Amino acid sequence: MSSQDFAMSAEGEKTLRIALAGNPNCGKTTVFNGYTGARQHVGNYPGVTVDRKEGEVTYENKRITLVDLPGTYSLTAYSMEEIVARRELSSNNVQAVIDIAEASALERNLLLTVQMLEMGMPVVLGCNMMDEAKAGGITINMEKLSQALSIPVLPMTARSGQGLQEVLGAAVNQADSGMREPLRLSYGSDVDQALKKMEDLASKTKLLAGKYHPYYVALKIMERDVDMLEDAKKSDAATTAKLQAIADETFEHVRNTLGTNTESLITDHRYGFIRGALGDGVLTQDPNKDRLAFSDKLDTVLTNILFGPIIMLVVLYLMYQFTIEIGAYPQGWVEDGLAALGDWVGDTMHDGALKSLIVDGIINGVGGVLSFVPLIVIMFSLLSFLEDCGYMARMAYMMDRVFRMFGLHGASVMPYCVSGGIAGGCAIPGAMATRTLRSRKEKLATLLTLPYMTCGAKWPVFLLLSTAFFGNEEAPKIMLSLTLIGWIMALVVARVLRSTIIKGEPTPFVMELPPYRFPTLFSVLLHCWERAWMYLKKAGTVLLAISVVLWAMMKFPELPENLSGPLEQKVEEAQKAVDGLAANVSEEERSKAEEALADAQNLLSEEELAYSLAGRLGKAIEPLLAPLGYDWRTDIALIAGVAAKEAVVGTLGTAWSLGEIDDAEDEEATKSLSDRLKEAPNWSKATALSLMLFVLLYSPCFVALVVIKQEAGGWKWLFFSMIFNTALAYFVAWLGYRIGLSIWPA
User: Fold this and answer.
1) What is the extent of the structural domain holding 207?
2) 160: how many CB neighbours lie within 10 A of its CB?
3) CA 624, CA 746: separation in Å to the nearest integer?
4) Distances from the Cα of 304 to the Cαs of 309, 310, 312, 395, 408, in angstroms?
5) 224/17 Cα distance (integer angstroms)
6) Which of 578, 594, 611 is the last residue of a domain?
């Protein structure tokens, strides 16, 4: 591909498209952020659930689209990330690749480099984290390594920005030179001869000529790459059958003579080439440097079998404590602002359905969720810090020690963490993350239990109830307890499932622990902004729509005149009684009259809400959920929570706004939802505990259910997740309510 093939921008300029590749934990995200800053957007690759990141950058007046490929160790089609990366490189839309390699782990990182060179991709190798390599006594002769690989090799330290522009400039030059001949290694005479025949046949028939070089097609079929075989069969089944026959014959010969298979043999020769490239003074290690690196020393304590879990629990508790204590201030400011907005709109607009929609439906509905944005931002910042510094990987490593006892794979840790196992995640990407699990049974067990994690959507509910009924001092303990209960229930249910309907032996787990690094402020803030923006978009789209629909369900049909008339008459009579009070009447008499007016108004509002569609639905299921301590208003909120868990708070806000009228003369006329619930006669600490447990465990939200169905491959698992989880939540919430009543008698 030449520079003439570059995509044209809207202004007619040629736009380069350069891919950013690398192993997980190589600092690729920091490099991408360093190039693109805020000029990036995130989506999904077509037909799959792997993140697709692109960003815009300019180099010497050339516009460049930088594509951040999924982190992968190789281009062999074992995982969806590997398949996506290879397909992107073969799409003819990429003119060059910047391959980010961790300088202190070059041998492992260069396997991906070699495979891209075998494709014939124009590659620039950026040796990242040179500061860490230098501190570890590692020296790399860039010029010699460049000669050995026949590509530009440059040093860089993405955290400080050193070398970024030089690497980008080299990539632009590589793009101008176009596609290169693929790297041809020797894999032994037998394999080499077979590959030559296969390449000639693929070239003659032009098999997948628009995507891959004939040599690369032959090589991947020789490796029995499933994805390549499927592509080849769709293109030319007859030629593919001939190529596969040669590959099978070679496979049998290698197995009989060498006692191995062709894929392993090819990989061994790749590593042999890499070791040769790094020899002869290219990579040297100072023998006087301490072999036990800083990260290893920390891990002797932080991942210790005894102290590690204790430290992890302390870290989680401090996260909750810091979030709630510090976040209480901006949360109060947001609540006051929303209250003032509601007062202003209420005073400005005339009474009617539109005013009710804006004040009761939108401001009190969506506003109830928005008030938790400051706490979410603080929590996301802390999570980003832990993730970027490498400690979250240690949490996963420590959790793996117990996973085998419950029939799960160690790789299940990350879907759990992504779903909210370390708080603030989401079950949707968590379910997508189960694609790394190759065992279908372990994947199913993980899919069906990851909704028990404390995802970010449940956070507003837990924060509302824990701070309202237990206070800011006890709330962190409640939040930590809910996180632990989610993990315990997930593991216990997984064990039950793996012993009954999903039987099977667990498979081995291998995980890389990245070195500890102090993250950059920009990286933490960018990650925080991405997650917070997703939360805000959800509040402004999905939750807004849900709030409007629920408001309509809680407003209509209106109470008929024959039912509302007597209640309205009582309100008028109570109002006249208040208006007719003499100026010198006692405070006690005035208070009684105003209380009677408030009671009459509240009774009218409650009957109007009860007569609505949502009220009837809540009343219908109230007997079923009454043993858990819930009234019909709470039942409405739980139904809304199936659409989105954040909607529980918004619906409670709308229901209690429509169902209760504040005394307009009261200094605290506009009460927060927390105050309303605390003052409600049918609410208590036991009720709050029961509701938090129910929300923690019951049916996943609608979108999560759809993703679970897609990943599990059947409607039965969607219904199982919805029904089983709700039944489990009912039992646990009932138990929590009974225990709560014994601890805090009503």
Assistant:
1) 189-285
2) 12
3) 21
4) 8, 9, 11, 11, 22
5) 30
6) 611
Tell me the pLDDT tens digit for each residue of 310-325: 898 888 778 777 877 8
H helix or E strand, kind and range, residue 17: strand 14-22
Listed residues 611, 637, 656: the one ending a domain: 611
Q: Are residues 197 and 317 in the same domain?
A: no
100 and 220 in a single domain? The answer is: no
CA 253-259-263 angle, 5° bins? 75
Report pLDDT digits (tens) over 270-294. 999 999 999 988 998 887 765 456 7
Which of 348 and 47 is assigned the larger pLDDT?
Answer: 348
- The total number of structural domains in the chain stands at 4
Domain membership of residue 182 (yes or no) is no
Residue 661 lies in a domain: no
631 to 50, 463, 730: CA distances (angstroms):
42, 20, 15
Query: In whole angstroms, what is the distance from residue 156 CA to residue 163 CA?
Result: 4
Q: Is the predicted pLDDT of residue 733 greater than 50, yes or no?
A: yes
Q: Which amino acid is at 386?
A: L
CATH code of the domain in which 114 resides: 3.40.50.300
**Shared-domain flag, residues 31 and 164:** yes
Q: Is there a single domain that holds both residue 365 and residue 417?
A: yes
Please indicate, yes or no, if residue 704 is contained in any of the structural domains: no
Indicate the Cα dihedral angle 91, 94, 95, 100, nearest 10°.
Answer: -130
Inform me whether the pLDDT recorded for 365 exceeds 70. Answer: no
Handedness of CA 59, 62, 68, 69 (dihedral sign): negative
Considering the domain architecture, whether residues 138 and 198 belong to the same structural domain is answered as no
Burial 35-60 (b: 16+ CB within 10 A, else e): bbeeebeeeebeebbbebbbbbbeee
pLDDT above 90 as % of the chain = 35
Contact 214, 202 (CB under 8 A): yes
Do 417 and 452 fall into the same domain? Answer: yes
Cα 69 to its chain centre, rounded Å, is 17
> Do the domain assignments include residue 644?
no
pLDDT of residue 576 exceeding 70, the answer is yes
Tell me, yes or no, whether 81 and 160 share the same domain: yes
Return d(Cα 113, Cα 123) in angstroms, integer: 8
Report phi then psi at 460, rounded to 5.
-55, -35
pTM, 2 dp: 0.61
As a whole-number percent, the residues of the chain with pLDDT over 70 amount to: 87
Pairwise CA distance, residues 147 & 106, whole Å: 16
Residues 370, 383: contact at Cβ < 8 Å?
no
Stronger pLDDT, 6 or 492, i.e. the higher one: 492
Q: Give the whole-angstrom CA distance, residue 161 versus residue 421.
A: 33
Backbone angles phi, psi at 153, to 5 degrees: -130, 120
How far is 288 from 620, CA to CA, in rounded Å? 76
Tell me: do 346 and 453 sit in the same domain.
Answer: yes
